[in-house]
Task: structure prediction
Amino acid sequence: MKIAIIEDDKSISNAIAVAFEFRWPETRVVASPNGKDGISLVRQEAPDAVILDINLPDMSGFDVLKAIRKFSDVPVIILTVRADDADVLRGLEAEADDYITKPFNYLTLLARVKAVLRRSEKAPLKLQKTIALSPRLNIDFVNQKVRVDNRLVKLTPVEYQLLILLVKNKDQAVSYQQIMEDVWGRTSWEDTENLRIYIRRLRRKLGDLPPTMILNVRGAGYIFKS
Result:
């Protein structure tokens, strides 16, 4: 396994590397102290996951994330200073897979990395190769390919897992708590705003605006209508 760290504070990068060495000694950790080199690092090394600081000396971590998303759907965990900061929302809108706030517990960070890796490796519903879920939506469950109106849609691992969870329970409401547990491995968030951001991202990529496939069940969760 290979992890890329884009973080200008060398003490934090070193501490994360030590945590991986202690818990997962087979992990190779590569690091960059700035955004420009970090983008090149991700392109060249093709890591299994990226840990990305928002405050970098040469460019915004948001711009780094946008650049990475142009060529890779690698899971990205952003590091931000405050949980209630607008940085969290901006990071999720820019297609981060998760976030963690500073200062943080390194065991918590490792658990989050493990969770995003688990999501990226899942390939559920291999009952048959391709299923038409609606007149517009087709999913190839073996190769994890999603097509809308016969157009290939590029989803991040978290977006794909979110879609699959809803699809598996089509025509049934899936609660906020079940979504957070199944997709993120969390029992709760401070509120459901972050989940709504992921839903908006997914709807936008599926061309489901105004929504006809993924609908909100007020106060309960979301439902995929076949």
User: Anything to note?
Assistant: The two ends are 38 Å apart (CA to CA). The domain at 2-120 is CATH 3.40.50.2300 (Rossmann fold).
